[in-house]
Design goal:
Shape: globular
Mean pLDDT: 85
Largest sheet: 3 strands, antiparallel
Order of helices and strands: HHHHHHHHEEEHHHHH
Strand content: under 5%
Helix content: 55-70%
Number of helices: 13
Length: about 290
């Protein structure tokens, strides 16, 4: 089976729709499954081992190791994608375990639901981006720019929706924003630069119906996008993920704070980005995120 796994992973590498992080997640899931099969069978895994009983016993073993429900769901999704690839390529003549999907999912359903996440994992970030990049909807370009700007800067929704076209400097990869307790500053956009540029060049002109509209982010109903609109946007795309992600500005903002801390930004710098009045509040938040997310 290892030859087929390598071929499957090579097809992912050649497909620009799959980010490097997504490819690594699939590779990790399949390597863990192969190692499990080799351990229990005491031989090299064969395609015939991709069956109901082995999948169930694998998921049960992962559960006993303390894996979270979301991890088991992702493991199953990876095995399903891999199996579909084998069937489509003719390596398998039929679905080996889909007819018993209820038995397999029962193993996962026996686990308690995960607590609401305090921040997004890298895998969840890549899942959301993949869904946005794969969408043919015009609004997806706008929504990807919003998601990435929040993730890279930690801005509040109020600050984000207040942005005008004149606040964006693509040449220097910066944006001008008014931060609470700080005032007017220029912030680097980081990896949000490309999504913002694509939105301005391709997405915004298709949404714009009022010439001269100053707002950077505009709604499909014309005019400046509202704070409630941003909440609805994030919630919508989070629900498109499998499993669904309870995406919200708060969740993305906390993720941004943790990423900034891990990148070496000090607490005072993060405090300014988040608009906290008290540095102690920022430090307490970072401790909680570090303990629950890292």
């Amino acid at each position: 089976m290892e030859t087929e796994v390598n071929a499957f992973l090579s097809t992912l590498e050649a497909d620009p729709a799959y980010s490097e992080s997504t490819q690594l997640a699939y590779a990790n899931d399949l390597r863990v499954f192969l190692l499990y099969l080799e351990t229990v069978e005491e031989s090299k895994p064969a395609l015939e081992d991709l069956d109901t009983e082995h999948v169930i016993s694998f998921l049960e073993a992962e559960r006993n190791l303390g894996r979270r429900r979301n991890t088991l769901v992702r493991r199953l999704a990876t095995l399903t994608y891999f199996q579909d690839y084998l069937v489509e390529g003719g390596s398998l003549t039929g679905n080996l375990f889909d007819g018993n999907h209820s038995r397999i999912k029962q193993v996962i359903s026996q686990m308690p639901a995960n607590e609401s996440p305090k921040c997004l994992s890298e895998e969840q970030i890549q899942d959301v981006l993949l869904i946005l990049q794969s969408s043919s909807r015009t609004r997806a370009l706008r929504d990807r720019a919003i998601f990435m700007l929040l993730l890279e800067t930690g801005l509040s929704v109020a600050s984000l929706t207040a942005l005008d076209m004149t606040d964006i400097d693509l040449a220097s990869n910066r944006l001008h924003v008014h931060l609470a307790w700080v005032g007017d500053v220029w912030l680097g956009m980081g990896k949000a630069h490309q999504p913002v540029e694509e939105y301005i060049d391709e997405g915004r002109p298709n949404l714009l119906h009022k010439p001269g509209e100053p707002a950077l982010f505009i709604s499909q109903m014309d005019g400046r996008l509202s704070r409630q609109g941003v909440w609805q946007i994030l919630k919508y795309w989070g629900l498109q993920a499998e499993p669904a992600i309870p995406l919200s500005p708060r969740l993305v903002r906390h993720t941004a704070a943790l990423r900034m801390m891990n990148a070496g930004m000090n607490s005072a710098g993060i405090q300014k980005r988040l608009g906290h009045r008290n540095l102690l509040s920022t430090q307490a938040l970072l401790r909680r995120l570090k303990a629950s997310c890292d």
